[in-house]
Amino acid sequence: MSFDLNILHGSKEGITDEESLVQFSYIEKATGYVKNLEKELGRRPTACVVTFGCQMNAKDSEKLVGILETIGYESVESEDADFVIYNTCTVRDNADQRVLGRLGYVKSLHKKRPWMKTALCGCMMQEKGAVEKIQKSYRFVNLIFGTHNLYKFAELLCRMFESDRMIIDIWDKTDRIVEQLPISRKYKFKSGVNIMFGCNNFCTYCIVPYVRGRERSRTPKDIIREVEELSKDGVKEVMLLGQNVDSYGIGLSDEDKITFPELLEEVCKVEGIERVRFMTPHPKDMSEDLIDTIARNPKVARHIHLPLQSGSTEILKRMNRRYTKESYLKLVELIREKLPDAALTTDIIIGFPGETDKDVDETIDVVRKAGFDNAFTFIYSKRTGTPAAGFEDQVSEADAKRNFDRLLKVVQETARAQSGKLEGKTERVLVEGINEQDSNLVTGRMSNNTLVHFPGDESLIGEFVDVKLDKCHGFYYTGSIV
After folding, report:
1. Cis omega (within 30 of 0) for bond into 443
2. Which position among 146, 211, 252, 331 has the lowest Cβ density within 10 Å, counted as fewest Cβ atoms?
């Protein structure tokens, strides 16, 4: 990958965890294998990590790149590399198909370059059927591992270098969290920070609990230590990551036990961190205490992504979401009251088994009443291994598409009504890069997650600046530095 890399290479110094020390020994061993490859090729070998899916996967990929860089690979963007790793997603079927399509391309490269290696990891690999398909149709793949043993990447690399066979190492579960291994960040100025792993919610449409395992929380001291180290390294914005951040604390000892609002408070105290985001809360668990914590901490971003999925209480029950239309709207009302400047976004699924036009009317009603700044809308994707895949009353593709179009029209209307409310105001913006369409402009992100484009150069990247929002263009603004 072509990253603006800021390598945080791990060190054995100060590490007491036995598994971390074991993995550092494999890092040293793998470094020798890569040096031998470099001698054979007459150049530094290259590696490309391709990430599919969510921000949790993106964070995992930074860990993979950190190991690869540490053992001697040069990280590149092109899949025309000596080592290609696909970090897969399996939330929807099209993600699986995209991975298989990329493997078809890489297969031709393997024939021309016998030294080339390919690895597959991530959520898709936790599905038994997926691994069997790879074994049968893509025999050139050298290494397959899942979500639970990513921390053993260096060890798996050594096994790969030492064998001519496909290495498969998939775990059903784990209770381990291994800290302080190398990581290579995509950005110098912002970073995701895992606060927990796994999910206990078992929504009937979702494969995540089966491929990510049960919820496990990192200790607060490990999280704060990571945030402090990031701050010292120039990071100004962090995003706290978890499948359900509201349930943070599961698995912690009585000594370490704190709530997510309390953790958020502690992260905000870290000097040098100017903005804190989090992803993702769950409507059934989001508390008034969390909303109050956000309200009194100006560092916390004024953006809440609160997945709705459906506005029909009956469909929510079938989804096992454990809240109602009424309780969701009550939560929205509380957010609007205490955080009037916050942008509210959501996820919505259309075409869930048993959904009727009336159920979609209920969802549209919530969209109108909540006044979302944006909504990510999806047509239900049947996932093998989930309860909903076995429901008999599957919705036809034609009905799902018709109702999707109905919903999308209202989503666009409400988002349009919300947009423009900041026009003429001045907002604090974190500059993220040069504008892709006009090199005379830079692109930044406001606290509410809205993009703004304005005149500037590379010297501004990673800096917070005050920008007057001159004109709203729907989902973004153009402006000028004050």
Report:
1. no
2. 252
Q: At what angle do helices 93-112 and 128-137 cross, to 10 degrees?
A: 30
Fold of 6-169: Rossmann fold (3.40.50)
Would you say the C-alpha torsion 208, 211, 217, 218 has a positive or negative sign? negative
As a dihedral over the C-alpha atoms of residue 76, residue 80, residue 86, residue 89, rounded to 10 degrees, the angle is: 100
The CATH-assigned architecture of domain 303-418 is 2-Layer Sandwich (3.30)
DSSP state string for 310-356: -S-HHHHHHHT----HHHHHHHHHHHHHH-TT-EEEEEEEES-TT--
- Domain 187-301 fold: Transcription Regulator spoIIAA (3.30.750)
Kindly give, in sequence order, each residue whose CB lies less than 8 Å from that of residue 244, ignoring residues fewer than 6 positions away: 196, 199, 200, 201, 215, 280, 281, 282, 285
Numbered ranges of CATH 2.40.50.140 in the chain = 426-481
Residues of CATH 3.30.750.200 domain(s) within the chain? 303-418
Which token pair is 315?
């469909």
* CATH class of the structural domain 426-481: mainly beta
**pLDDT of the chain along its 482 residues, tens only?**
333 333 334 445 444 568 888 999 999 999 999 999 999 999 999 999 999 988 889 999 999 999 999 999 999 999 999 999 999 998 776 778 889 899 988 998 998 899 999 999 999 999 878 899 999 999 999 999 999 999 999 999 999 999 999 999 999 888 777 777 889 998 999 999 999 999 999 999 998 898 888 999 999 999 999 999 999 999 999 999 999 999 999 889 999 999 999 999 999 999 999 999 999 999 999 999 999 999 999 999 999 999 999 999 999 999 999 999 999 999 999 999 999 999 999 999 999 999 999 999 999 999 999 999 999 999 998 888 899 999 999 999 999 999 999 999 999 999 988 988 999 999 999 999 999 999 999 999 999 999 999 999 999 999 999 999 999 998 899 999 99
DSSP codes of every residue in 383-399: -TTSGGGG-S-PPPHHH
- Cα–Cα distance, 58 to 50 (Å, whole number): 9
DSSP 8-class letter at 125: G
**Range(s) for CATH 3.30.750.210 in the chain?**
187-301
